[in-house]
Amino acid sequence: xxxxxxxxxxxxxxxxxxxxxxxxxxxxxxxxxxxxxxxxxxxxxxxxxxxxxxxxxxxxxxxxxxxxxxxxxxxxxxxxxxxxxxxxxxxxxxxxxxxxxxxxxxxxxxxxxxxxxxxxxxxxxxxx
Length: 128
Prior knowledge:
- By secondary structure, the chain is an all-alpha fold.
- The protein has a domain of 73 residues.
- Helix 3 packs antiparallel against helix 4.
- The radius of gyration is 38 Å and the shape is flat.
């Protein structure tokens, strides 16, 4: 085949489809040292600002952020408080009870009211 008839793209196929034309998604990998350093800086500034407050109010969160286990002293001082029923909890319990009552009423109505069948039977074709 004559080389004049071959298109320039086919002649330079390597340069057209080579590595230079492909995009590199590696530039935005979040595991990069740069991103990890930024995350660590933000974490340190947060801990510097709110370290005292977290020690008093939520030591579990503080040690979780530091990626360390909670000391035994702290475990003993943390007491789980039983939360009181809020308005939402009360409303949900009442609503669930009403739904159960409605369901019982529906089943009683459906049991009390039997199906009525028509007295017209099937038409049987007559053989001639």
